[in-house]
Amino acid sequence: MFNSYCLIFNCLITFITLQNVEGSVSFPKDFIFGVATSAYQIEGAWNESEKSESNWDYKTHFYPENVNDHSNGDIACDSYHQIDEDLKIIRELGVQSYRFSIAWTRILPDGFSNRVNEDGIRYYNKLIDGLLRYNITPSVTIYHWDHPQSLQEMGGWTNTLMIDLFADYARIAFEYFGDRVKHWITFNEPDLFCSDIKRGTVFSDGFGRYLCAYIMLKAHAKTYHIYKNEYYIKQKGKIGITYSSTWHEPKTNSTEDIAAAKRALEFELGLFANAIFSKDGDFPKIVKERVAFMSARQNFSKSRLPELTSEEIKTIHGTADFFGINHYTSDLVSDPSWESFEVSYDVDVHVDRGVDPSWPGSESGWLRDVPWGLHHLLVYIKDTYNNPIVYITENGFSQFELQDDGRVNYFKGYLESVANAIAEGCNVLGYYAWSLMDNFEWNAGYTHHFGLYHVNFSDPNRARTPRRSAFWYKDFITDQKS
Ligand code: BGC
């Protein structure tokens, strides 16, 4: 469990705290245990009741070769027709909260807010009311990667028009659901959707990702201010944003490797979080300097990273009630020996990444079980962003078997890490397991299984069956709450 490279001091602290909680992990009584999903990954009914085509419908229909098994989310878990079944298994788990996302194309088929699709509204109303009936708090993500294909054709997240269109869409969500939804997440993992601008082009690699970060931050801030100025007084909810970050551990304790690991964190997390959560706002200094330096070497007239004006810095700064973090795994980062001046994000980041082969693997090549990484990441968030309120909005492991001991070990280890971090003063208020059930795992299609519940995708009813981890999580929560 302990990697031989990590700094001796950190390891010692981790070792001592883990020893203390061994067998008796304990969370504060009001800690929220939840479970999460997202619209495109589970809903299906891709063109039903006026829902329009999303960027993911388009991608999977026209470029199936990009998905491992050439599948799509046309039916997925059929959640659009299976609300009762979903509610039943959410209740069965004994969670206090359910995190799901809204499909923009289901409630605003044209992308614009002038025409609302009442059937879409009805679906989410039924889900929200069903959760509340059983005292389960809905946590709603407004954007989890799917938007109207019509807007994608206008450049998607590289078009500044998205700022107003997103804010209009969010306003509809507040308007229709905000009387009952008190926990909003504007965006899920901008680092991931901004890396997907248009793969393999100079535009995507060296520009699009930064432009997307800039546009996303402005859309987020605009939405936050709309909520606070127009809705908060009546609705009294909280609104935040969810990032993703791997924990990047320096491969050795050399100054260069420590700097490389910090660079990796600033480009993955800081690029999206610094402007909102750091003391002074703006993009991180390390990112600004590095992209400016590379851009100058590449003969650009100015940095490829957009510059935030002081007005923009002010408007974006502090626009979140909580810091949502999705965390799955860790890597070992070192300073590379290669030099390149190619225009690319990876060259800008300029690190080598590896893993310790002793870290247990999952079904997904990128995901290994490294529980102490979450502990380090939570302490890093506390120290870097002034100890914000944190929700771990996703954490999970892929394994197919019903007897999923790998996933159970993973959850045990990661939950211990969360408890350790809380004991050290990290302000973590909730944890959501990913995922309620197997679902459409983006480019992996249905080949990677993250569900506490197995889903039979060849059964027209998409029968859900609990894995061992579902029973384990339920018992764990019951224990914590008794
Ligand atoms: C995403 C989920 C995805 C999970 C596992 C996260 O990056 O938010 O949608 O299923 O990772 O890959």
Provide structural commentary.
With 482 residues, the protein is of the alpha/beta class. It has a single domain (2-481), classed as Glycosidases (TIM Barrel, Alpha-Beta Barrel). It is 44% helix and 13% strand. It contains 17 helices and 13 strands. Strands 1-2-3-4-5-7-10-11 form an eight-stranded parallel β-barrel, surrounded by five helices. Helix 15 (371-384) packs parallel to helix 16 and helix 16 (405-423) runs parallel beside helix 17. The radius of gyration is 21 Å and the shape is globular. The chain starts with 7 loop residues before the first helix and ends with a helix. Bound molecules: beta-D-glucopyranose (BGC). Beta-D-glucopyranose binds next to loops.
Give the mean pLDDT: 94
- Look at the helices and sheets and give the structural class: alpha/beta
CATH class assignment: Alpha Beta
Low-confidence stretches: 1-22
Main sheet record? 8 strands, parallel, barrel
Query: Treating each run of at least 4 consecutive H or I residues as one helix, how many helices?
Result: 17
Going by CATH, what is the homologous superfamily? Glycosidases
